[in-house]
Design brief:
Length: about 290
């Protein structure tokens, strides 16, 4: 059995079946899209989606199990070297960390799904990832929202995980997020002093946990976005995690958010988000200067 860390996933439901995708493969979620007719019968293909100038093939996950497609619902776009494909969804359950991911050899070849995950509170969820995109027609290039996502500060439309803390909107660029922890147990560090008084367990390691809400303590369990930093992972407690969004950097001064750990401001439409990084958390909470500190 491999000791490799299990991927965080986006879990959703389709036709009563639980489905999930690795967060790293999720390019975007398109809500209530206008879907087109492919015009030609193709296995697994339910419809097409015109999005950001691309005509993207859309698969109904229930077709993997020989059930008829229904060309309606939200679309989860997954992208990889093999291109981009949409997956139809009835309801997004949110970000989760599976307890187990294993091969699904009973799923016939050529049906995108390679593995199955066991997720607390969800149960068994069939995993669809970029490694299966060669099984269906896919557009040759990902949507522009995923291009240059390796640089959180450059270009527009970089994919971010968005979340709320104490009623305020925050975000972290995909490359800054090492993991997402759902309902993770929190424990107090004996003899510790603020701001590092709590920690969470992640793949056998103890990770410092921070709370930007200003509360004196932390709940027994919580949701965390784990950020990468020069000294290792840092767990940021959040109230809720939203859908991934392509955010455009804003030229405004992030200082007006008056919140620690904020490195920049980004927007989707006119809605601003405070962009946090592990380096900024180190700078503002621990007083350790980062390589790009302001």
């Amino acid at each position: 059995m491999s000791d490799a860390p299990l991927p965080s996933v986006l879990a959703f439901e389709r036709g009563g079946v639980s489905v999930c995708c690795p967060v790293a493969d999720v390019a975007e979620i398109v809500e209530e899209p206008v879907l087109g007719d492919p015009g030609y019968p193709v296995p697994l293909l339910a419809s097409t989606l015109l999005h950001r100038g691309l005509l993207i093939p859309v698969v109904d996950p229930v077709c993997v199990f020989d059930r008829p497609a229904s060309p309606q619902g939200d679309v989860v776009l997954i992208a990889g070297p093999g291109g981009t494909v949409g997956l139809l969804s009835d309801r997004v359950l949110g970000f989760r960390t599976p307890s187990t991911v294993a091969p699904a050899p009973w799923v016939p070849a050529g049906r995108i799904c390679r593995r199955v995950a066991v997720i607390d509170g969800v149960g068994q969820a069939f995993l669809f990832g970029a490694d299966g995109l060669a099984d269906v027609p896919a557009v040759a290039a990902p949507p522009p929202a995923t291009v240059d996502a390796t640089d959180a500060a450059a270009g527009g439309g970089v994919m971010h995980i968005v979340f709320t803390i104490d009623g305020r909107d925050y975000a972290a660029a995909y490359p800054e997020v090492g993991r997402i922890l759902h309902r993770q147990r929190v424990f107090r560090l004996p003899g510790a002093v603020p701001p590092v008084r709590h920690a969470v367990e992640m793949i056998g390691a103890v990770v410092p946990a921070f709370d930007l809400s200003g509360a004196d303590g932390m709940p027994e369990r919580g949701d965390f976005v784990v950020l990468v930093s020069p000294v290792g992972p840092l767990a940021l407690r959040v109230d809720g995690i939203g859908r991934p969004l392509p955010l455009t950097p804003d030229a405004g001064d992030p200082a007006w958010f008056a919140s620690r750990g904020v490195a920049a401001v980004a927007r989707v439409d006119e809605r601003p988000y405070a962009v946090v990084t592990g380096e900024a958390l180190l700078r503002d909470l621990i007083g350790q200067p980062g390589s790009g500190g302001r």
